[in-house]
Amino acid sequence: MEGLVLEKDALAAPQFTGRPDLLVIAGEHSGDQHAARMLAQLKKTHPKLNVCAIGGPEIEAVGTQLLYDLTKASVVGLVEVLKHYDFFKKLFSLVIKWVREHRPRAICFVDYPGFNLRLAEVLHQEGLSRKAGGDISLYYYIGPQVWAWKAHRRFKMARFLDALGVIFPFEVDCYKDTALPVSFVGHPFVEEGCEQKMLYDEKGPVLLLPGSRVAAVKRIFPVMLATFERFLKKRPTENAVVPYPNEEVRKVLEEIFEKRRNTLRGHVYFVKNNQTLRGKVVLTSSGTMSLLCALAGIPGAIVYRTHPLTYLLGRLMVRINYLGIANLLLDKAIYPEYIQGKASPRRLLKVLMRCLEDPDAQQEAFDASQEIYRVLTQEGDKTAGSWLGDLLDEDAI
Q1: What's the burial of 71, exposed, middle or buried (CB within 10 Å: 0-12/13-18/19+)?
Q2: Would you state the CATH architecture of domain 198-376?
């Protein structure tokens, strides 16, 4: 992540002739995955659409022209973003320039609110969006967490956006005091036919899931390894599996592992996260993977560390009781959360041992998984792909 470089002509031109029907902009690995699933659904009903994307390899894998791999620039936290301010400023300008030149009929932003909401605002200011008198529809899939912080953003979104698709049923009510059309489109993890990425296995390994962003991995993975090192002293035959999204993150993981190789050699395995993971207990960051683990009924805990200044600012601005999505959905600590200094190997070891030795721990995890599944499978308006397809049809694309 250090020294991000952006070439002058970083964004490719469309590979097809004519005006693009749709531009999708997704940042980070989870956004790339969700956008790819949405596009795969869309293409089943709209196979002739001309679609371009700024996203990642998952989007490209479903047959969409990738203009730029934004997942390679995945950072989190104010301090981390500021370190790469020049990079993001230049990329932002290039995206605006691309939109002006190629004029897609619609843009679908996917998550990544710090970049995407600002982009929607500028497109509105320049008169390119429909709500500003232009001819580009602006849609948003997986909206920002207005229920957690910066709730006022919903009014700005209502001014700029033409429609919003959300993945948690309670989010629809968050916008009821605006004129923005909001649809619950189901959560991608519980859609029919969605491959299970996590499974509980009482004979499986310990899962260590430090996340997909380099800055977070550098702070979270060392404490996870230190915890597992202590765990091995009590259970010397155990193994741990660590998934990674790309080679950049794998390199960081292995550099951290090298410092403990002598005691952990033969017990820690790195695997690409494009396969189903099985485990009996987990230490996970607070992101997407924590919800997958909860749905699978794997007991464990959330571990999170970030830059101290980012954490301090977050405490001042965020008004939620939990970091983990599963905990938020059920409003209780399904996964106890160990944040910043509380994330110590001593405390985390106690959690691992309790999950494996207390017969109630697995039953609690299983019961929670069933409850979360029920919440996320409430009858939605449509899938993400059909929601977007209907919107495009209304625009006569």
Answers
A1: buried
A2: 3-Layer(aba) Sandwich (3.40)
